[in-house]
Design goal:
- The complex is a heterodimer of chains A (about 240) and B (about 230).
- Chain A has about 240 residues and is α/β, with parallel strands linked by helices.
- Chain A has a domain at about 10-85 and about 155-235: Rossmann fold (3-Layer(aba) Sandwich).
- Chain A is about 35% helix and about 25% strand.
- In chain A, the strands form two sheets. In chain A, strands 5-6-7-3-8-9 form a six-stranded mixed β-sheet, with helices on both faces. In chain A, strands 2-1-4 form a three-stranded antiparallel β-sheet, with helices on one face.
- Chain A is globular, with a radius of gyration of 18 Å.
- Chain B is an all-alpha fold and about 230 residues long.
- Helices cover about 80% and strands about 0% of the residues of chain B.
- Chain B is built from ten helices and no strands.
- Chain B has helices at about 5-10, 15-50, 55-65, 70-80, 95-130, 135-145, 150-165, 170-175, 185-195, 195-230.
- In chain B, helix 2 packs parallel to helix 5 and helix 9 packs antiparallel against helix 10.
- Classes of the chains: A alpha/beta (about 240), B mainly alpha (about 230).
- The interface of A and B includes residues 56, 76, 77, 81 and 91 of A.
Chain lengths: ~240, ~230
């Protein structure tokens, strides 16, 4: 049997996550399909990061099951994630990318070309020799993005990528995301920034207290939310 | 080494006997640190990442071994290496090799325990990223050791400090033989017992200066490395 060419759709079948006495995700049924970015929104603690980690295959659900392209195992090497606070390896920016390329088993011969491409894509040309930890917050975030893209993913997960960035750095980051989307890579992003959600989302998933409140096309969600919770969230009310 | 010469004169005249002692001290202690590092760093890093029943007992035991009494280690090695001992046929007793072995045993727990702590702290920081990159166990250990290398210098220096300062183990397995197994610390002990206090004090200052020099060198290397690698 041939492995599927893609990890999509990512199907959540009645997924729950329980940590101690806390239910982080409750009975989530969800399908993340190919196409424009899926954006997970909701207040802090609503379960966005947990859902993202499970969709990426980093964590396993307590109950229920997840499948990628119809398979339970999926293709881990073609999934990549940028964490909210990415950790830069204590090496140069270029060495961080070389490390990721090697970890993704990219053939040695093509690594130099890929490295140059990635630096170009995220706008870090000329900064390759800098220690990664000395880069600015925005540069580190883009380096983390390049490191994720080194895996040549079919699905890219982003956890609050612009939570700690100023508007200029956010713009630079979202421009790169635009280029990533244009390459046909499926982006799944968690954010509590409604502006970013409006700019990027094709599909919206609203989470609150570990439950999916509403999921559907972004245009419809922003124009005519179906639930009271969504209307309150969009109106800027604090969901607690 | 004349007993009537002052320590300062010995140092200034680069007395060959003194230089031989200094050379042997450095050779034995640095070799011991190297040998202990080759085993202790991978061991500590492995212990930082694995989870098994009894792991915490092993960690406590390892930490406790940082306080191994040198004379006891010397005695144990003496019994093993003596003619009638299990390793007696190796003929190593009263040789620099036996001294290196003794100091390695003393230094190994220090390097392994400090590596374990350093790598475990770094692992908490790196765990998610390495998991997301699907990095396997061996490569994880290599990555963590490499990225912790500047912090691990401190572990090596702690080990070197222990080796350079130690007299109990080397005097038992080395025998303090003039021109063959006499080190700084054993020479100081001998001169003190002979009443040559000025010479003993002078040798003490030379030993302290050596330790400071090695530490300063390591510090400079670390600073230069950090400037390049961040």
């Amino acid at each position: 049997m041939h492995a599927p060419l893609t990890n999509l759709p990512i199907a959540f079948d009645d997924v729950s996550v329980v940590a101690g006495a806390v239910t982080v995700l409750e009975c989530v049924c969800l399908s993340i399909d190919a196409g424009a970015p899926t954006v997970l929104i909701g207040p802090n603690g609503s379960g966005k990061t947990t859902l993202l980690r499970i969709a990426c295959g980093l964590d396993a659900p307590s109950r229920g099951r997840v499948s990628w392209g119809g398979q339970v195992a999926g293709l881990p090497r073609r999934r990549a994630i940028v964490f909210q606070r990415p950790t830069m390896l204590r090496r140069s920016a270029a060495a961080n990318l070389r490390y990721a390329l090697a970890a993704a088993r990219i053939p040695r011969a093509s690594r130099a070309t890929r490295l140059a491409e990635l630096l170009e894509l995220v706008g870090l040309v000329g900064l390759g020799d800098r220690p990664a930890r000395r880069l600015s917050g925005g540069e580190q975030q883009r380096l983390a993005l390049a490191r994720a893209l080194a895996r040549d993913p079919t699905v890219l997960f982003l956890d609050e990528p612009s939570a700690s960035l100023d508007p200029a750095a956010t713009k630079a980051f979202e421009d790169v995301i635009g280029a990533v989307i244009a390459r046909g890579i499926k982006v799944v992003m968690a954010t509590h920034d409604l502006g970013a959600a409006r700019r990027l989302a094709g599909e919206i998933v609203l989470l609150h207290r570990g439950r999916v409140i509403e999921a559907g096309p972004a245009a419809r969600f922003f124009a005519a939310p179906e639930t009271a919770t969504a209307r309150r969230f969009l109106a800027g009310e604090l969901l607690v | 080494m004349g007993t009537d010469a002052s320590a300062l004169q010995l140092v200034l005249s680069a007395d060959p006997a003194l230089l031989a002692i200094v050379r042997l001290s450095l050779l034995v202690s640095l070799s011991a640190v190297l040998a202990a590092a080759l085993v202790g760093i991978p061991l500590g890093a492995w212990l930082a990442l694995v989870r098994f029943a009894g792991r915490e007992v092993v960690i406590v035991a390892l930490n406790a071994m940082m306080g191994l009494p040198p004379v006891v280690v010397g005695l144990a090695l003496y019994l093993a290496l003596s003619r009638s001992g299990p390793l007696g046929t190796w003929g190593l007793l009263f040789t620099p090799a036996a001294m290196i072995a003794a100091q390695s045993v003393l230094v190994l727990p220090i390097i392994a325990a400090l590596t374990r702590q350093t790598v475990e702290d770094l692992w908490l920081e790196y765990r998610d990223e390495l998991a997301a990159m699907h990095v396997g166990p061996i490569r994880r250990i290599a990555t963590l050791v490499w990225d912790a290398r500047f912090s691990l210098v401190t572990a090596l220096l702690a080990g070197f400090g222990r080796a350079a300062a130690e007299v109990g183990a080397v005097i038992i397995v080395g025998g303090n033989i003039n021109g063959f197994t006499r080190m700084m610390t054993t020479a100081i002990a001998l001169e003190t017992s002979k009443g040559n206090l000025a010479l003993a004090i002078g040798l003490g200052f030379v030993l302290i200066a050596l330790v400071v020099l090695v530490n300063a060198g390591a510090w400079l290397a670390r600073r230069a490395g950090e400037r390049v690698a961040g």
